[in-house]
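Researcher: We're reviewing a set of sequences before deciding which ones to prioritize for further study. For each one, I'd like a predicted 3D structure that I can look through quickly. This is Stage V sporulation protein AC. If possible, include the structure in C-alpha cell form so it fits the rest of the review sheet.
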Amino acid sequence: MSNNQKKKLTPVQQEYQALEDKLETKRPIFTNCIKAFITGGIICLIGQAIQMFYIYYFDFTDQTAGNPTVGTLIFISMLLTGFGVYDRIAQFGGAGSAVPVTGFGNAVISAAIEHRTEGFVLGVGGNMFKLAGSVILFGVFSAFVIAMIKTILIQWGGL
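Model: Here's the predicted structure for Stage V sporulation protein AC, in C-alpha cell form for your review sheet.
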C-alpha cells in the first residue's frame, strides 16, 4: 500500500495494515520463477522430442511436424489432467505449466470434467467451449484477416 493511501486510513486501520503486512506469508518469488522455468523447459523438451519423432519416423519436415506435435501435446495434457497428474505438475511449476499449449488443453478438459454431472451437451460441451470457443474464434478470425491481407498484397503487388 502506498504512503498516500496509508495517510487516508484511520489509526486503527493503519495498525491493522501493519499487522497484516507483518503476518503476510512471503512468497518465494525467485524459487517460483526457477520452478516455472524448469517446468516450462521440460514441457518444451518433450515437445521437441515429439517433433523429432514425427520428423524421423513419419518423414515430416520441420514445418509440417508442428501441427501433429501440438495436437499430441494437448492430447497428453488432457490425459494427464483426467488422471489428476497435470494438477500436481501445475502446482509445482505454476506459470511454467500454464503458458505452453498444454495449459490450454488442461483448462479445456478441467472445465469439462468439472461440469460432467450436468450432462454431456450442457455440462461438458457447454462449459468446455466457454474457454475453447473464444480461442477458436480468435484463431479463425485472425487466419481470415491474414489471408485477406495476403490476398490483397498478392493481387496488388505480387509477393
